[in-house]
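for the record, two folds in this file. i put them one after another cuz i was lazy. first one right below, seq on top, structure tokens after. the second one comes after a little note so u can tell where it starts
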Amino acid sequence: MKSKTAIVTGASSGIGEATAQRLATAGYKVYGTSRRGASGGQRSFEMLPLDVTSDESVEAAVSEVMRSEGRIDLLVNNAGFGVAPAGAEESSIDQARSIFDTNFFGIVRMTRAVVPHMRHQGNGRIINIGSVLGFLPMPYGALYAATKHAVEGYSESLDHELRTRGIRVSVIEPAYTKTRFDANFLEPDAKLDEYREVRAALGERLKDLMAAADEPAVVADVVLEAARAARPKLRYTAGGAAGRLRLLRRFAPAGLLDAGIRRDLRLGALMASPPPAPVLQK
């Protein structure tokens, strides 16, 4: 029996690379993608150049896989990036569009390119790498959290549409994960002095949280579980912290959860710089 074919976006490092390797070990024929395509190092899967912000690039990569394999059984949408900790008003509209173009519309492009082939073959799986920030707020990370909330809503709606055609959609929800993700943060492009101290303090706090984070293999194992499940769930948390946060979101009083988020990020000790005193007119 021919092995199943999988596409994993953003597979040059981190969660994407770990997922592609895990799927290949499990017997999938895996095509990883990145903007640069193949790079140095031995891998157990092939790499293709793909820019999820380009319709033409997406179509070319999917067409290449179809020419080589004749089918696509699994799509893992992982490509994405974040903005360094900053106030929501410190990112321009152009920067907000940019993060949505990759983190959300990239998933939409990949899905639109792959679903017709899955419908034709009568089955398939789409697994979107979301985040606990798809169901929790992220102070000073509002744009990234917004993209992950969008992924949750899109995935749940899409699963309802496609399940009668043999296609299921799932979202994987990790918490902090040890990757180079934070090294690729975009700096906010409209910085304000009022947020300078908060940005610096949250940047240091994020380093501490990342040092204690789960390895990417934790997420990759959950992706494989979802891909193989006879009756896949819509949502899978990845790692102990993510599981606890999901339970808190479901059962904890809103005020308790709100206080916990602020305490974890140490926001109580962070105050934006006060506005200048008004000038009294005579």
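(here's the note) second protein begins now
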Amino acid sequence: MQELVTNGYLFIAQPPLYRIQQGKQSFWTYSDKEKDAKLKELKSGKVEVQRYKGLGEMSPQQLWDTTMNPASRTLLQVELEDAMEADRIFHVLMGSEVPPRKSFIQAHAKNVRNLDI
């Protein structure tokens, strides 16, 4: 399937990280920066913030509205900068050995940009 990536045909639909609810209004944000900006904007009244860790936490309608609807979804193109390094990291993270995975996560946790992808 490498040709899908190298030819630019592979995309990931990015789900939101937060749902911010104020009264009957809901807002979806895709980063901590967006969430903070929206919270500053919504100064008055009760505001609820829900953090999403995975798509399984959303209702089917929420998943459609935020992630699957072609009119409103955010797509990220998958690019393969270094195939051998990507393969190595894939095996560290998805392999059966726990210690290398734990070490990798601890070493790179502070540099994560898109944790939920």
